Amino acid sequence: MKKLIAIGAAGLIALFMLVGLAPAASAYPETTCNTTVDAQTVVSEGKVHVHGTVDIVITDDGNGRKAASDTVHWVATFNGETHTADEDVFDTTFDVPKVTKTTTFTLHVEAVMPDEKTTCQRSLQITVKPSGSVSPPNNHPHLPDTGGPRLLLLIAGLGLVIAGAVSIRMSRREQQRSGRHAH
């Protein structure tokens, strides 16, 4: 019996040592950043509004001292133009260049956390279409820029709805005249 207790105690001690010495996986939540734009497809010579937020996990330098700054340093680059700011919530607007054909530009946003060691980067593809062309021209027989059926089909459908309504109305009138309706 003493051997069984000794083996059980040794097993428990080994288990506690194993758990106690294991590295802490995801002991601290990670810092994440979110970047949004008002539209990923814009017209030439328009504007792109960028909004950035961050979920900060503030760490110290190992000696119990927090970072000197409590704000996030943002750097956003679009078409060679760079905007920076030191704030928790980032808002900026870029001018869209003039293009003659549909072109894709990369918007790159980087957030440097207050500890100056943690960074968060996001890249978005912004499609710029030439001025005056909301959608490419098409050669199919639908209504322009709607994807709907031909106008002739819409008119025929409207005519059928009207004919059905007139037919029902006339049928009800005839039933009322002949007295075949129920009260």
From TrEMBL:
The keyword Translocase does not apply. Keywords: Cell wall, Membrane, Peptidoglycan-anchor, Secreted, Signal, Transmembrane, Transmembrane helix. Residues 136-174 form the Gram-positive cocci surface proteins LPxTG domain. InterPro entries: LPXTG_anchor. The keyword Membrane applies. Residues 1-27 form the signal peptide. This is Gram-positive cocci surface proteins LPxTG domain-containing protein.
